[in-house]
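Subgroup meeting minutes
Present: P.N., E.W., G.H.
Scribe: E.W.

1. P.N. recapped why we're keeping a running log of single-chain structure predictions: easier to compare across weeks, and new members can see raw inputs and outputs side by side.
2. G.H. added today's entry (197 aa).
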Amino acid sequence: MALALSILLLVILTNVLAWIGHAVLLDAAYALYARIVDNAGFSEQKQLKASILELKYDLAHTSAQDEFAKWAKLRRRHDKAMADLEKLNTRLGASKSSFSSNFNWFLWFATTGAQFVLVWWYRREPVFFLPPGWLGPMGWFLSLPSAPSGSVSGAAWQMACQRVVKMGERFVKDLLEPSPEQAGPADASATNKTKQS
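Output recorded in log:
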């Protein structure tokens, strides 16, 4: 029964992570990574942005004709800060790209790869046995690829769990979405207009 529960929990975890969304998980993980590992780069970026805004304000309030020397000095400082910010953004972008690649690999291995490994490792182990003659001659199908005849294999149990979890997802989504009858008159008219077009 531990194998059945392990496969079920892994399928649920995989689907919950899919429901949350890859982009949301990546952004949250990268924000945590950035705070822990590369905090100096992000604090430097924040300081550069603040100084650029201050320099833009000073440039806007300095006359290029009346105070040319001051304006030129501010302009050079602004251009240098913009170049530094561009270099820093490139470095931080490369860091995020590298993190994204590693995070994708980790997420795949923790969900899909773990399911493959678990089913492969226990491919000869029955998850549970079916009552004799319950499905007649088709009972052997559930024991594929290598489980004893008359049992349910890990692969068949995984597919059944995935199907039930997907049906549960659809049921919850249907409960949370208002039907056209439950929607107010304004919502119903908007729905009708989109259907007509």
